[in-house]
């Protein structure tokens, strides 16, 4: 018989697992890993409201994508175009970024699988006589290691030609040159830290769902158990 067990700690772990998976996925897909040096507006680009030139803009570069501004024939009309610069895996700008993409993708897939499974932990608390929370916590720890490897290798690719075109000639491995780090990189770091927090917190979720109070509720014949 399925017993639906909901506790504060198990629900918090489930929510954090889902948030971490989405945060890492969004960061990976974003082009805002590097913010390039400011590029001046064309002399023909005039702001109709002020009559002056528009402010310089900063193109952004991701692991496999980029955002840049395209000027049109009409005055003051400029669109920001975002999309992948690499049509295939081999076209990613640096071998280090290719390795980063692999490690991050593996870590994110594990996190997404755990996030999916975590939704069902309210009803299923064990699998093959092993706590599903402990199994998921172990997988989150492994995912965190993949994420760390990817984030360590990523700055090694700052010396590639693509990064130099955005960050200037002084850009090199682990040196940003004229670029700055974008929100996607910081989100990936924050998500990695939360991944390990989730891995540790899974043990608390397992303790909460197997406590004496829960067992007493089960012995009383309750199928829906909600505890603080």
What labels describe this entry?
14% strand, 5-stranded antiparallel β-sheet, alpha+beta, 6 helices
Given helix and strand content, the structural type is alpha+beta
The assigned CATH architecture is Up-down Bundle
Number of helices: 6
Overall spatial form: elongated
Which residues form runs of ≥5 with pLDDT under 50? 43-53, 73-77
Question: How helix-rich are the residues, as a percent range?
Answer: 40-55%
The profile of the biggest β sheet is: 5 strands, antiparallel
- Give the overall pLDDT as a whole number: 83
Describe the structure.
- With 228 residues, this protein is an alpha+beta fold.
- The protein has a single domain, classed as Butyryl-CoA Dehydrogenase, subunit A, domain 3.
- It is 49% helix and 14% strand.
- It has 6 helices and 9 strands.
- It has a 5-stranded antiparallel sheet. The chain has a two-stranded parallel sheet with strand order 1-9.
- A hairpin with a 2-residue loop joins strand 6 and strand 7.
- Helix 1 runs antiparallel to helix 2.
- The longest helix has 27 residues.
- The chain is elongated, with a radius of gyration of 24 Å.
- The two termini are 23 Å apart.
- About 7% of the residues have low confidence.
- It comes from Ceyx cyanopectus (Indigo-banded kingfisher).
- It is found in: Membrane.
Give a short summary of the structure.
It contains six helices and nine strands, in the order E-H-E-E-E-E-H-E-E-H-H-E-H-H-E. The chain is α+β, with helices and mostly antiparallel strands and 228 residues long.
How does the SSE layout of this entry go?
Blueprint: E1 4-7, H1 8-29, E2 34-35, E3 60-61, E4 65-71, E5 78-84, H2 95-119, E6 126-127, E7 130-131, H3 132-153, H4 161-167, E8 180-181, H5 183-209, H6 212-219, E9 224-227
InterPro entries: LHFPL (IPR019372)
Membrane topology: Multi-pass membrane protein
Transmembrane segments: 12-35, 96-120, 132-154, 183-203
């Amino acid at each position: 018989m399925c017993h639906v067990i909901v506790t504060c700690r198990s629900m918090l772990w489930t929510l954090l697992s889902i948030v971490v998976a989405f945060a890492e996925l969004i960061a990976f897909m974003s082009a805002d890993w590097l913010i390039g040096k400011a590029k001046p507006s064309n002399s023909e680009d005039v702001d109709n409201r002020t009559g002056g030139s528009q402010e310089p803009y900063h193109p952004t570069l991701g692991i496999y994508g980029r955002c840049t501004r395209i000027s049109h024939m009409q005055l003051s009309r400029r669109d920001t175009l975002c999309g992948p610069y690499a049509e295939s895996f081999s076209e990613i700008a640096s071998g280090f970024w290719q390795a980063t993409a692999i490690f991050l993708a593996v870590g994110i897939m594990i996190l997404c699988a755990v996030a999916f499974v975590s939704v069902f932990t309210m009803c299923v608390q064990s699998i093959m006589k092993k706590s599903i929370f402990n199994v998921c916590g172990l997988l989150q720890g492994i995912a965190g290691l993949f994420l760390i490897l990817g984030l360590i290798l990523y700055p090694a690719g700052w010396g590639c030609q693509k990064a130099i075109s955005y960050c200037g000639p002084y850009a090199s491995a682990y040196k940003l040159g004229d670029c700055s780090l974008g929100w996607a990189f910081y989100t990936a770091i924050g998500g990695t830290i939360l991944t390990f927090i989730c891995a540790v917190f899974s043990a608390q979720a397992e303790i909460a769902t197997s406590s004496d109070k829960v067992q007493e509720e089960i012995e009383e014949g309750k199928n829906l158990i909600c505890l603080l």
